[in-house]
Amino acid sequence: MALENSSAPATAYAQPEIDVPALTAVLDGEYAGIRDLVRGNLTTYSSILDEADELGIDAYRERVREVVVKMAATGQTGMGFPVEYGGGGDVGASIAAFETLAFGDLSVLVKVGVQFGLFGGAILHLGTGRHHEAYLPGLITGELMGSFAMTETGHGSNVQALGTVATYDSATGEFVITTPDDDARKDYIGNAARHAELAVVFAQLEVDGRSQGVHAFVVPLRTGGRTAPGIRIEDDGRKMGLNGVDNGRIWFDGVRVPREALLNRFADVTPEGRYESAIDDPNRRFFTMLGTLVQGRVSVAGAGTSVAKVALTVATKYAARRRQFGAGQGSEEQVLLDYGLHQRRLLPLIARTYALHAAQDVVRTQLHEVFSGLSGIEGDARARRRLEARAAGMKALSTWHATRVVQECREACGGAGYLAVNRFAALKGDSDVFTTFEGDNHVLLQLVAKGLLTDHASEFEGLDQLGMVRYVTGLAVETVIERTSAHKLLERVRDLLPGGDDWDREAGLLDPEYQLAMFRFREEHLLAGLARRIKRGIDQERAAGAVFSQVQDHVIALARSHVERLVAEAFVDQVRALPEGGGKAALGLLCDLFALSAIEADRAWFMEHGRLTVQRSKAISREVNDLCRKVRPLAVDLVDAWGVPSAVLRAPDLVG
Amino acid sequence: MALENSSAPATAYAQPEIDVPALTAVLDGEYAGIRDLVRGNLTTYSSILDEADELGIDAYRERVREVVVKMAATGQTGMGFPVEYGGGGDVGASIAAFETLAFGDLSVLVKVGVQFGLFGGAILHLGTGRHHEAYLPGLITGELMGSFAMTETGHGSNVQALGTVATYDSATGEFVITTPDDDARKDYIGNAARHAELAVVFAQLEVDGRSQGVHAFVVPLRTGGRTAPGIRIEDDGRKMGLNGVDNGRIWFDGVRVPREALLNRFADVTPEGRYESAIDDPNRRFFTMLGTLVQGRVSVAGAGTSVAKVALTVATKYAARRRQFGAGQGSEEQVLLDYGLHQRRLLPLIARTYALHAAQDVVRTQLHEVFSGLSGIEGDARARRRLEARAAGMKALSTWHATRVVQECREACGGAGYLAVNRFAALKGDSDVFTTFEGDNHVLLQLVAKGLLTDHASEFEGLDQLGMVRYVTGLAVETVIERTSAHKLLERVRDLLPGGDDWDREAGLLDPEYQLAMFRFREEHLLAGLARRIKRGIDQERAAGAVFSQVQDHVIALARSHVERLVAEAFVDQVRALPEGGGKAALGLLCDLFALSAIEADRAWFMEHGRLTVQRSKAISREVNDLCRKVRPLAVDLVDAWGVPSAVLRAPDLVG
């Protein structure tokens, strides 16, 4: 395809130049200060990357704890907590700090996530004053380590069905916590095997013989280093990665905690044993509590993008200096990045990473707004649900992107990429579980799709199929079908694009409005189609489970399309807002490369649905090749602008 | 799509039943005996899978060596060597043994590959009687460990440009071997860091001031455990995986070896210093020597497929018993494998693994025929080149498949899949480098495409671009364009498919002739298109390097299509040859699932090139869904039939 004429305009193309520090400032945005603090800390403690290989697992875990505590002392990990307890009082900054921390050793990152995000977040958001006063000052410094004990061996995704039970004993004013069987043991719990003194334990609350659903309790796991009575802990042992984090399993055998151990922000039990909650609906109550998870998902989404940045920084720098093969015998060998194939392998991934960065800015800002002043969690329910859907979708796309990027970059660095002294071994093993933890990606995408089907009218709850079908068979599906007609889309693009009904044939490929219209058309078409399929299944009186199972691939396709549209919009908006200059021009190329390579990857769908002719499809592939050639001279500057500290690249064979 | 009517025929569909041992016998084929010997050995030494996690790197390496030597004593690793030196005299059996060994610890596998395949293979195929007598008996038992020192830090793929030099000194009758700079140090060399006493060293031979190209020399690395004078060895250290193999770097500083150290099957130096070879052309000589590598590529191809089998066995068994979510609150949760999405994730991968198994049978048989009696390497050059192309292509597709399967299966097993006690951590880290070693996959596919462009008329050489262009601009390209016209394809399908010019619209989707015609059409169209593009570039007098760089993605697409066509043909042939019964019916479903999901994955291309209408493309997706539902009840039997010993599944949390 490359030999055909490019579809670029005939006007002279001026290769943009990038001012790297200026572009870094754009990318760092309002959080440049906290990001630079973290970059400094990463450089100070960069020896942890070597220690991860050299130390035994016990010593490595201790070292990770030590680094976490030292970083906590600089303020970087406590940004999300209220100032009165020693925190920074800035939720957005806490996410930005976490994103930046993901450039370094990922055991440190995940231990920070467990301690300050999950454990600390649960105390902060589910607890009340008594819990805040008792625990926040200690946990913010890292002196008081804790676990977030939700997942069980038998229940990772469907946490509403957890098996652990907490029964209220009104005689003593205590909860009695019990693990009924091995399926209900807590599993993969960070900090549990070694360091946690406390755990926030999620269990089915039983009061007066009646189940009130899942609630959270503060339970001491260890005192003076010894496991508390009635508690059994087992080490999860070595993992594919993240071996600096001490994951473990916990069983509870009639463990008694005082009534005040219930994190009682949304529900409480009176001393006499009366259950009280301001939220009547048990489902709504449960998913309001789960709102604490949204911060974790936004964090992991950002971390995934950072992992991709590290891998691409190493692989791009390597490709810009490594030579292999030449034009002929005796001639100098050619730099890898000058090969068309190598450009095709790396440059669209750089573009997508920039796009995800822009989209991460949006979701972080939404989180900050919803959670600032602590009002959000009870505030605008609709805004919260939209945030939760966006966070779930971004987490899935960003972490799959990371897995794909690390793999492609390792292969692009050949045998040297396989040596542990270079960073891919750690990056790959450590980041692999990102696609699973904080919500399995496939499950998260189904939640995203459900939000779209119900127009966010329902609680952002689990995958209860009957519940879903109930909503869909009601008003929502008609609304969805009406709202997503091709006619409506056309109305919206008419003012933006030439060509009227033929907008998809007339518009220039490099017109962002064309690219966005393509993403929007795909999403709306998938949404309408899915709603119709579900409705048809229900009209035929088929079992909800069977209907749901058979449309599952549509569900996933819809959710992916939705999130990809959000990402594209975020990137287009970011580029438009930049002042004219080399940076804007360079990001404009990347934005085109992201959008067109995404459309190219799904061109079969666009052809099948009448929005791409064969000629135009081929033109898009040519344009992607052309964009790769234009981005190639900028590649090293573009990865440098991410500002991954050189001390943590740790790829001596690859980047010198 | 799943709610539409299936395109399956209206006649009653009878679900086939599988006799698992009978299907295993079909898959094991003529090598059932050696495969069962290896299965027994894997079970005997299955503790190595735990030891890999528990032992330090030094102890693990020693243990791997020990297991390799003990397995050698059972005869499994020496099958490829002549009987008179203690081998089994059966090349095909040696590959089958290696394939089966890949069910177990992959450090053991790779150490076997280094010792018996690379080092032993070089002595056998490049050496002559004096080398065979001196080394084969010791190396076959594993007592004499050796290295295959080809790759250098600066040259992994372009080995014709190696930097190590061997200068003949006629005064002493010795070769003097020198590493001129760090780029020329030998790197990633298995057995080098610890166990090798000898190495086969590839170096530029200089005789009387004249360079004769790369040749191989037997060089002592250690005597009595001490590094030989003039040699420096450095440990490559920890790797992403395969840490039971002691990879290292080697520098030579004027190391002297006697004239007889030259492996002189294809070239020799007389005592007086005259260079002699029966093969005049230096290129042909070099690539004849490299013929030893073909066995390694066939072996790694088979190992990749075996890795996929292990991962799919674990993930399928887990998916058939793990429950998560239900049709509604209170109802029993649903088995993962009953979800349409989960079927879509796993079952096409099972089908592709079966297809690759069938194709591996073909390439193993070809290898056996070419190499049996040791005549092959000098025998029919054309057959050898076709074998080399097929081996290169199979190695690339099979190892990428393994990487993809391991990743998908790990994610499908959630958090449990991340624990080292289950097998994915080791499988993933250990098999990752398969895509790189024994030839980088992208480089191998370029070699495959070159063979197609030149109709295997040229030597199977490197990616010398001028050489390639020379062939292509000559007779070959015209022949290719003529041979691959749509007209010719049509002639060939006319007798097999109804519909004449409209064969691609009329034939049934489940007709294997239709499926094969689609694969063939794609390959021939890509080949003709690529030939035309190169010719056009040359006609425009563009630099060969630029032309080549810009068509590289076509080159890769062509090679993939070619190999996928070979795989499809092998699978169709295998199924056709089976006796009627449940096994044939089950493999027939898998064959359809493989072919249609491969066409579906590339349906954009088929639509762009007029061979798939939108309606038919959608029908293929529906058919794939339908096939998944039919294969689902057979899934556990299908993975059991691969015969992965239960002792090496090592996934207690996943398969019980």
TrEMBL record, chains A, B:
Per UniProt, subcellular location reads as:
Peroxisome
What are the BP-aspect GO terms? Answer: fatty acid beta-oxidation using acyl-CoA oxidase; lipid homeostasis
Query: Which cofactors?
Result: FAD
- Domain Acyl-CoA oxidase/dehydrogenase middle positions: 147-255
| All residue ranges annotated as the Acyl-CoA oxidase C-alpha1 domain in the record | 291-453
**All residue ranges annotated as the Acyl-CoA oxidase C-terminal domain in the record:** 511-652
UniProt similarity note = Belongs to the acyl-CoA oxidase family.
Q: What protein name is recorded for this chain? A: acyl-CoA oxidase
**Organism for this UniProt entry:** Streptomyces lavendulae subsp. lavendulae
